[in-house]
Design goal:
heterodimer, A: alpha/beta, six-stranded mixed sheet, five-stranded mixed sheet, 25 helices, 15 strands, globular, B: alpha+beta, Ubiquitin-like (UB roll), Alpha-Beta Plaits
Chain lengths: 604, 235
């Protein structure tokens, strides 16, 4: 064991207080320093933090951005989600392979580059896109890839890549990213101006119970997709027994096609931190944690600077706005590449330095969440909306949107439309109106709510975006009539196969079984009974899975079968001989034939 | 002792005590809820989902859901039994199980559950995963082909043996049980007498030199289906 490795690990661990619950930070930094977290490092980390090596290994092997085997100095992660695939992923991937001389999963001989594929990185509005370490490169073409690789070979630091800067804060010194916001429509709740502290001033003039009542009166519901009433969540958290309480901000949007939180974190960090402080005041928390997905690491320094500025302005820290006893701080917890961590109990596991496995419920986070303390986990957009509720009042907020769904919703739109980007629309907007707005009049199919949502056809375009009808966490992916819905369903299924944590049987195994049958159908070997088989499988996954990811993982398949049955039926044929069309007798007996040294008499 | 309360499972009144899960209250009343990962004396893992019941109309795992006054639990319904069959079949096809010559045959909870649920052959295709065997340890071997990822060894090693020999690594279909060493079970402090070895419901962790010790006919599930021991307590 080298002295250098020992010193490096010792330094990293001690900087995090040799605290096993900070394992995510420790292994992330080890990965950064060493290019991997090898067995020896795990051993050292375990010794320093008082845990076991296998516990460290369980974390390292869970997250896509961590590895036991050495990675190149620059890791290129090409986004392979469905929108990128429709907009040139194949050409871009081929260009990377050609220029780097390696395939996916490989590292160049000089140790400079590793090439990988990754699911949605939150850039569907500027696809095809890729990550090079923390740097985001968007709107890629084979020519752009060629230049990019040549530049990186000359100067192997992605931060030095010369490029134009995106709009808004993307161009600010601490971000310097080529990412564009693409805000297409501003509404009055989220994308309106607010002076820092305006909501907090109103909040501290009330009691915490009054703040909660205000949020309840506004009927604000969670914007992440599940739609749980925010005021009620805060109330449960406030009333639960415990010494400490926490506010966790879920900034782990990873559902393919979702990127609205990226824009909020870039353009509205003050509004978000205002909302977190209001939540902290309401529930009696002293610490808030922003769980930031690894793909958005390029925003980290910028967000930290906003936190610092707010501390300096007494909008965070001790006795906020002079209110004695109101102490609230915020820190950032980086993720490491796992979609399931957007599930609130998995997010908590990850914040505790564990694998991103969802937890058994009950107890619910409001009762026993982060470090077994009462915890409110809220989406970025929810916290922004909560700040606005405080600033403008519940009555004002409840007057916007529809009866059961007050307020506005941010939609991230991508795919076959003229104006991809983020739109703030009042709840109750019909899909047809919305498609007109984003320039997608010829849409044949729309995936609402990402892969865990549903795929709807034109018969459903009169339906409304709201909790009681077309519920969505914000993703809208448009497909024109030329697209193959079965291919879309397959891409989403592949995503869930990749992202299932593997804890429970129906999700771990069910997704693999869906994949097998979809492949069979795509290969032209499907038979009519396969549709009932798939529907039944989706039903078992929905009823029996342990968390929301598994319960909804079958949705792309189930909803395309329901709404686009004809597309499937075109590919299915009953076997004329009544036997299984997918069964290839010649292939099945080929090994035996080889051993016997003669062809089978049955297989021709 | 705090007051008991009542709820129903398939219409039958069950007495529950505060702090009990549905599984525990059912068991005390002699009502069997099929399960695989759950093992008395270990904290519930909630991974196999075989004990899924409808609780007031919503699916819940009986092993983790607290029982409560007035709850209406559906357990033995056609729909739930069909879902359980699916789950047990999934566990068969996602691994490589070979009942006819497995040392655990007749004492295996997975096999016994398949018989109880009336599974003859799975409707799902075999996935033939590539899984590893670790026979490095003098007393115990691991065959991951037969592992159902129930977590019993992980929790027993941690909570009962105080050792942390086992933990899960990887995710999704690549999830597997790893040992607290670079690679081999022999390099851990596991003993053949550890609780973590005894709790394996299938033939994934086995004590060496002891295979096929019980004659056919006298094995745990040769005479009566799994769950009979609980149902025999029913009043």
């Amino acid at each position: 064991m080298s002295a250098k490795l020992q010193a490096d690990i010792k330094e990293i661990c001690s900087r995090h207080g040799n605290d096993a619950t900070r394992m995510m930070d420790i292994v992330r930094e080890a990965q950064l320093k060493l290019g991997c977290v090898p067995g020896e490092a795990m051993e050292l980390i375990a010794a320093a933090t008082g845990t076991k090596r296998v516990e460290v290994e369980s974390v390292v092997t869970f997250y896509a951005f961590l590895s036991k085997k050495p990675k190149g100095r620059m890791v290129v992660r090409v986004c392979n989600d469905i929108v990128d695939r429709l907009q040139g992923f194949d050409e871009v991937a081929a260009a990377f392979k050609k220029e780097l001389g390696v395939g996916f999963g490989e590292t160049t001989a000089d140790g400079l580059f590793s090439l990988e594929q990754t699911p949605c990185i939150g850039m569907c509005d500027q696809a095809p896109a890729a990550l090079i370490n923390d740097e985001v490169v968007t709107s890629l073409s084979p020519d752009a890839v060629k230049k990019l690789v040549a530049d990186l070979k000359k100067n192997p630091d992605p931060k030095t890549l010369a490029h134009r800067y995106g709009d808004g804060a993307n161009a600010s010194e601490l971000v310097h990213s080529m990412v564009n916001n693409n805000i297409r429509q501003k509404g009055e709740v989220i994308f309106a101006e607010m002076a820092p502290g305006a909501a907090l001033k109103k909040a501290v003039a009330m009691t915490p119970a009054e703040v909660i009542r205000e949020v309840k009166t506004a009927r604000l519901r969670g914007r992440g997709g599940a739609g749980f009433p925010t005021g009620m969540k805060w109330e449960f958290t406030r009333k639960a027994a415990g010494e400490k309480r926490y506010v966790l901000c879920n900034a782990d949007e990873g559902e393919p096609g979702t990127f609205k939180d990226r824009v909020l974190l870039t353009e509205c960090p003050d509004l978000l931190l205002e909302g977190m402080a209001v939540a902290g005041y309401a529930i009696g928390a002293q610490l808030g944690i922003i769980y930031l997905r690894a793909e958005y690491a390029y925003l980290r320094r910028y967000l930290e600077s906003v936190i610092e500025k707010r501390k300096a302005a007494n909008l965070l820290g001790k006795s906020i706005l002079g209110k004695a006893g109101f102490d609230f701080d915020v820190r950032i917890q980086m993720g490491a590449g796992a979609y399931v961590c957007g599930e609130e109990t998995a997010l908590i596991s990850s914040c505790e330095g564990l694998r991103g496995d969802p937890k058994n419920r009950p107890p619910f986070p409001a009762e026993k969440g982060f470090m077994a303390a009462p915890t409110s986990v809220n989406n970025v957009e929810t916290l922004c909306a909560a700040a606005r509720v405080m600033e403008r009042g519940a009555g004002w907020f409840a007057g916007i949107g529809s009866q059961g769904s007050p307020g506005t919703k941010l939609l991230s739109v991508s795919g076959d439309c003229k104006r991809p980007g983020v739109y703030e629309v009042p709840f109750g907007t019909t899909m047809a109106d919305f498609l007109k707005l984003c320039g997608a009049e010829d849409a044949a199919a729309v995936q609402v709510g990402g892969p865990s949502g549903q795929m709807i056809g034109s018969a459903d375009f009169g339906r409304k975006v709201c909790y009681d009808d077309l519920a969505t966490g914000g993703s809208v992916i448009v497909f024109n009539p030329k697209r193959d819905v079965i291919e879309v369903a397959r891409a989403f299924n592949e995503f869930f196969c990749e992202e299932s944590c593997g804890y429970c049987t129906p999700c771990r195994s069910g997704n693999q079984l869906l994949r097998e049958r979809l492949e069979k159908i795509a290969a032209g070997k499907g038979e009519p009974s396969d549709l009932d088989y798939l529907t039944g499988l989706c039903r078992t996954m929905k009823v029996a899975s342990r968390c929301g990811l598994g319960q909804t993982a079958g949705n792309p398949v189930a909803s395309t079968i329901k709404n686009f049955r004809a597309a499937y039926e075109k590919k299915l044929k009953p076997a004329a001989d009544g036997l299984q069309p997918a069964f290839d007798l010649a292939a099945a007996v080929s090994t035996a034939s080889e051993i016997a040294g003669r062809p089978s008499v049955h297989a021709d | 002792m705090s007051a008991t309360f009542t709820f129903t499972i398939d219409g039958k009144e069950i007495k529950g005590q505060p702090g009990q899960t549905i599984m525990e209250a059912a068991e005390a009343a002699g009502v069997y809820i099929p399960r695989l990962c759950y093992s008395k004396d270990l904290r519930p893992h909630g991974s196999c989902r075989v004990c899924t019941c409808m609780v007031n109309g919503r699916p819940q795992a009986a092993c983790t859901q607290p029982a409560a006054e007035g709850m209406v639990v559906e357990n033995n319904t056609d729909e739930l039994q069909a879902i359980r069959r699916d789950l047990v079949e999934m566990l068969f096809v996602e691994g490589n199980h070979f009942c006819p010559f497995c040392e655990k045959s007749g004492n295996c909870e997975l096999q016994a559950m398949a018989y109880r649920l009336g599974i003859t052959a799975p409707k799902f295709p075999y996935l033939w995963p590539d899984r590893s065997v670790d026979a490095s340890h003098p007393e115990v071997f691991i065959d991951r082909n037969r592992c159902i990822l129930c977590g019993r060894c992980v929790n027993a090693s941690k909570d009962a043996d105080g050792k942390n020999v086992f933990q899960f690594v990887g995710r999704g279909e690549h999830k597997r049980v790893a040992v607290n060493a670079e690679a081999n079970l022999a390099d851990t402090d596991l003993k053949g007498t550890d609780r973590a070895v005894a709790v394996c419901p299938v033939g994934a962790i086995l004590v060496k030199h002891k295979g096929y010790a019980t004659p056919v006919g006298r094995r745990s599930y040769d005479q009566k289906p799994i769950g009979s021991e609980i149902e025999s307590k029913r009043k």
